[in-house]
Automatic annotation (TrEMBL):
Occurrences of domain Diacylglycerol glucosyltransferase N-terminal (ranges): 11-176
Keyword Lipid metabolism set for record: no
Species this protein is from: Brevibacterium aurantiacum
Keywords from the named record: Glycosyltransferase, Transferase
UniProt similarity note: Belongs to the glycosyltransferase 28 family.
GO biological process, one term: glycolipid biosynthetic process
Keyword Glycosyltransferase: yes
Pfam family, one: MGDG_synth
UniProt xrefs under InterPro entries: Diacylglyc_glucosyltr_N (IPR009695), Glyco_trans_1 (IPR001296), Glycosyltransf_28_UgtP (IPR050519)
Name of protein: Processive 1,2-diacylglycerol beta-glucosyltransferase
EC number: 2.4.1.315
A cellular component annotation (GO) from this entry: membrane
Length: 470
């Protein structure tokens, strides 16, 4: 089962890419894709979906503030809020009907819901969280999952520095459709082709981009994609009519993968899926009008890789593109950088990492979450801590997978009840379980997964237990 949320098009595009990759695996018998917003109430859907883009257009500073405020890992702890819980009921019913053995989440809303269901014992499926932007954002991090997939190696390093075990985090790239996974041989003898995109919903900034390209000195052709905005399409067609065949203006199209492979330079917003598709096609980008937060950070990464330039003023877009086209070899170097940055096999890698990965979930206790949040706000790497507040891992002896991330102090009660002579623990589903605190009971249920006994060993800093009594 693949769970997404239709806030923009990127999350659903990633879900479709994973669905497509399922067809290449003989061990996947059936796939169901569900946009969780489509089965929620109209009010909830409008607030989260349409409301977000209203803020993007009218109050981008508030979007940026919200992104930064929700960025610290585990700032949001505890159960999902009542409104979200009510709107999640149709999703829970759909999961129970389908009875999946594996679930992929391409949006943080279903990821948060699944964590709650895992801890309550409602779901016994392998669960993956798949981020859809190049920079990791703390809102995605949940307290129960099987595998966490990020877009690049820096995100993996960041999560392991927080304390998450390396066996549960992988850098695969952002899942994209298979049509986007090969870069063509571009013909240097013809003028470069610009692909100017207004996004699926359209956008007035695309008109400003096209207007500025009319002043360019370099030879070029351009394809302008206006999305569903028919009024924008008509205005641009009138604008470029004097230029003859230099411009091709389209509305919404399903041929974006083919256009990406034919183009030489993309001009538009650095959404996670758009950027990932461009990189897989070896298509460098001129970034305009990024959404504060994730798209700005996507752009920073692409520029760092040498695969993009950013234009912050509509008045200089034509000049900026001209600078790329006129400098000998620059466009070709950017195309090589884009190809190097791409991850065309991300969807298949996500499936392999999940289906061939651990059978038990990783559970992060609330105390461990507090440590991770507190140390990240102090700009301290949590894995450097020692003493009672340090982080320790419980690793199952047989499979070698980490099943829990705890605060060292939490081991006191577990050791008293389940310690072995060898220094490990043998977790049991016995009558003594009821005497443990609620949090400890919940963690044990999630780790045992219906079994009666689970031998684990304790791993962590070399000195976490010196201040703890046995």
């Amino acid at each position: 089962m693949i769970l997404s949320a239709g806030v923009g098009t990127g999350h659903n595009s990633a879900a479709a890419a994973v669905q497509q990759a399922c067809s290449a695996r003989a061990d996947v018998a059936e796939v169901q894709v569900l946009d969780v917003l489509q089965v929620s109430s109209a009010l909830y859907r409008d607030v989260l979906g349409k409301g977000y883009f209203v803020l993007v257009e009218g109050m981008p500073w508030l979007v940026e503030w919200g992104y930064d405020a929700s960025d610290p890992p585990f700032r949001r702890r505890g159960p999902i809020d009542p409104w979200t819980r009510i709107n999640a009921l149709p999703v829970i019913r759909a999961i129970k009907r389908f009875r999946p053995t594996a679930i992929v989440c391409t949006h943080f809303l279903p990821a948060q819901l699944l964590a709650t269901l895992i801890l309550r014992g409602v779901v016994d499926a392998k669960t993956a969280v798949v981020t859809t932007d190049y920079d990791f954002q703390g809102l995605w991090l949940t307290n129960a999952f099987h595998k966490f997939f990020v877009a690049r190696e820096e995100g993996r390093v960041e999560l392991t520095a927080f304390g998450l075990p390396p066996d549960r985090v992988a850098a695969t790239g952002i899942p994209i459709a298979a049509e986007s996974n090969t870069a063509p041989e571009r013909d240097a003898s013809v003028p470069p082709m610009l692909l100017i995109s207004a996004g699926a919903k359209g956008g007035g900034y695309a008109e400003a981009v096209v207007r500025q390209t009319l002043h360019m000195r370099s030879a070029f052709t351009a394809t302008v994609v206006c999305g569903h905005d028919e009024e924008l399409r008509r205005r641009i067609e009138q604008l470029v009519a004097p230029a003859g065949n230099c411009y091709r203006v389209l509305g919404f199209t399903t041929e974006m993968p083919q256009l990406l492979r034919r183009a030489d330079l993309f001009v538009g917003k650095p959404g996670g899926l758009t950027a990932s598709e461009c990189m897989a096609a070896g298509l460098p980008m001129v970034l305009v009008n990024p959404i504060p937060g994730q798209e700005v950070r996507n752009g920073d990464y692409l520029m760092e890789q040498g695969a993009a330039v950013r234009c912050n003023s509509a008045a200089t877009i034509g000049w900026k593109i001209d600078e790329v086209l006129r400098e000998p070899g620059r466009l070709q170097r950017m195309q090589v950088a884009a190809q190097r940055t791409g991850s065309p096999d991300a969807a298949a890698d996500v499936l392999s990492g999940l289906l061939d990965g651990p059978s038990r979930p990783l559970v992060v206790s609330r105390a461990a979450q507090k440590t991770i949040l507190a140390e990240s706000e102090r700009r301290v790497v949590a894995t450097d801590l020692t003493g009672p507040s340090s982080l320790v891992r419980l690793v199952e002896e047989v499979a070698g997978n980490t099943v829990a991330l705890l605060q060292a102090e939490e081991l006191i009660a577990l050791r008293k009840r389940y310690a072995t002579g060898a220094g490990g623990l043998i977790l049991r589903r016995d009558h003594a379980l009821v005497s443990l605190r609620w949090e400890q009971r919940r963690l044990l249920r999630a780790m045992l997964r219906g079994e009666d006994v689970l031998p684990v060993r304790v791993e962590g800093p070399s000195t976490p237990f010196r201040t703890l009594p046995d």
